[in-house]
Amino acid sequence: MKKHVKNNVSWVGYIDWELQWFHGNDYSIMNGSSQNAYLIQEEKTVLIDTVWAPHRFEFVENLKKEIDLSKIDYIIANHGETDHSGALTALLDEIPGTPVYCTANAVKSLEGQYGKRGWNFHVIKPGETLDIGNGKQLVFIPMTMIHWPDSMATYMTGDNILFSNDAFGQHFAVEELFNDKANQSLLMKEALKYYVNIVNPFSPMVARKLKEIEGMNLPIDIIAPSHGVIWRDHPEQIVQKYAEWSQPYQENQVTIAYETMWEGTAKIARAIAAEISKQSPDTVVKVYNVAKADKNEIMTEIFKSKAICVGSPTCVNEILSTMSGWLTFLKELKFRNKKAAAFGCYGWSGESVKILKERLADAGFKVIDEEIKSNWNPDEEDFAKVPALVESLLS
After folding, report:
1. Contact in structure between 289 and 258 (CB atoms under 8 Å)
2. Is 147 annotated as catalytic?
3. Catalytic entry in 16, 227, 275, 346
4. Strand, coil or helix: what is 134?
């Protein structure tokens, strides 16, 4: 169903209330999501993006109810990932030859995913404009590595709308579409989770792109991303958040992440948490078992933290497998300006703490020397080491 955005601009996307996972099973969805596509009906008719492949036929049929497909003059593909481009195959079967405006890398992405179908690609140049009539233009802004090499944004003059693609989005279903209609606490929680787990690895590019867009002096009344709410009420608020988040961000928080076999490592985790609160009562402390807690939620808390403590027992000369996979994801997210400590129990060989320190350093953390390495179960001698570890971590 078409929903009005502003003047001759409508939302024609798909709200997915049942979605639970994204990027395979790499991103958890707690409050639904949306795939946002937009229809512009000026003297020229323009479709900006489509929806995920599972909804492609429904998307095309719904679009037919709103417009004669043959009236579409241009399709803008801001990003080739299938959650944005998945309906292109069905749509271009109906209207072959319709020009598809995108980056050169998007051509590679689309042909790589769907094959070479003879689509009529128009490769954009940075700052290129497209006249759509009634005195309005589309301006194409490459958004390389925010968050794929092929990404771009499209700005519509006159109505002052930035179709920002994945930037400024969230996996958050809001039937009413707009940010002022959403639950504000959930909105900002989902916006931060989205930034941390998808955009954060590219924060230096985000910071540069924000300055570049600011230098273009574009009046922006609405930011229309590819997922979640459309920012019409003070859209600058999410831009300001991205400016903050793109820096080496931290709050007065410490997050403890561990995995345990027979509760020994868990006991150390709880002792560290209690000692942090004792030494620094104003510091927020979060404790997670990585085998049980949602990894995306943990990473959001780590982003907010100035330091982390990571624990695992030794198992067959290694750390536990869930912790190993979790550390791979931790490295992928490229956190900056954070300290780390390691702890764990062992029965025989005792390699886990050394491995954790190496992995944390490899992930970009400043690892402190202090550690807690407990044989079998922690005793008073082990717990006596906790204050020095916490003091070093907080200093």
Report:
1. yes
2. yes
3. 227
4. coil
- For this structure, is 23 an active site residue? yes
* Phi, psi for 350 (deg, rounded to 5): 75, 35
Contacts of 265 (CB under 8 A, 6+ apart): 258, 259, 311, 312, 313, 343, 344, 345
Residue 127: what pLDDT?
A: 85
Beta-carbon contacts of 342 under 8 Å, excluding residues fewer than 6 positions away, are 309, 310, 311, 353, 356, 357, 360, 367, 371
Catalytic residue among 83, 150, 275, 301: 83
Query: CA-CA distance, 72 to 171, in Å (whole number)?
Result: 28
| pLDDT tens digits, 278-294 | 999 999 999 999 999 99
Please state whether beta strands 38-41 and 9-11 pair in parallel, antiparallel, or not at all (unpaired).
Answer: antiparallel
Map out the domains of the chain with their CATH numbers: 3-245 (3.60.15.10), 254-394 (3.40.50.360)
| Assigned token pair, 364 | 């970009």
Cα torsion angle, 270, 304, 17, 332, sign: negative
Q: Is position 79 annotated as part of the catalytic site?
A: yes
Other beta carbons within 10 angstroms of residue 347's beta carbon come to 14
80-122 pLDDT tens trace: 999 999 999 999 999 999 999 999 999 999 999 999 999 999 9
Q: Are strands 21-22 and 38-41 parallel, antiparallel or unpaired?
A: unpaired
Residue from 79, 150, 195, 288 carrying the catalytic annotation: 79
Candidates 27, 42, 55, 147; catalytic one: 147
Q: Which of 150, 166, 259, 301 is catalytic?
A: 166
The catalytic residue among 194, 249, 288, 346 is 194
Q: Report the 10 Å Cβ neighbour count for 210.
A: 17
The two structure tokens encoding residue 308: 């982390």
